[in-house]
Amino acid sequence: MIPYFVADAFADQLFEGNPAGVCVLEQWLPHETMKKIAMENNLSETGFVVRQGGHPCTYELRWFTPVDEIDLCGHCTFGSAYILFRFFEQNETEIHFNALKCGYHLVITKQDDILTMAFPSLPPRPFAYADYMGEGMGAVPSEVWKTDRDLLLVYDSDETVRNLTPDFQKLKEFPEGLSVYVTAKSNDPRYDIVARAFWPKINVNEDPVCGSMHCALMPFWKDRLGKEELVCRSLSKRGGTIVCHQDGDTVLLQGRGAFYLKGGLNIEN
Fold it and tell me: Which of the residues 16, 45, 89, 206 is marked catalytic?
């Protein structure tokens, strides 16, 4: 049996945030097997971790969507660290992940019930608007930006972001962007910005709380709002909150988690 867990990442309570599957392995499974496990679990991402020999609190980490392996995932990194702190590294306050797909070294620290992840800053660049964007999202953005991987659409209000009803088939056909992020300044004084993340190209229509999205949101918004700390609220149905800090080329992502499930996977025959 493979130890398997589910944790809600960036959640102040159970059934909020983004559920992440976590498989704790003694050694790597074949790529196709991990792909099938993630497809069977059918969460937006399932993380697979293997302790790296000779290095305390250091693990190799890979992320799989229901379609295939992905190069960076914030909430599943958070969920993996949350599970390791709770069940395998109870006396530790820092876990290191070597992310095999992208080559990043990711450090997650724990203080009381708050986890802080150090992720790469991914500043977006201005990008030209095209009619297919407004048609796919159901509303025309005021600005369009892009990272190397993803589109970032800026809207005029948090209500616009909340009420978007994208045509996911049209989003799949976007020639640019693996995912589409949407964001606006928040009118709620508890939060600085709001956002949503759509990934229909990998069979995840909407990611409840996308951690890696904030690697682009933080450098985009910090100068505009004149703040070194941003409280970011996801306006998905589940909702979730991430507190972001910029530290040079690193974005620090902070939040809480909630434990949901512990079990075992039987993959023999």
Answer: 45
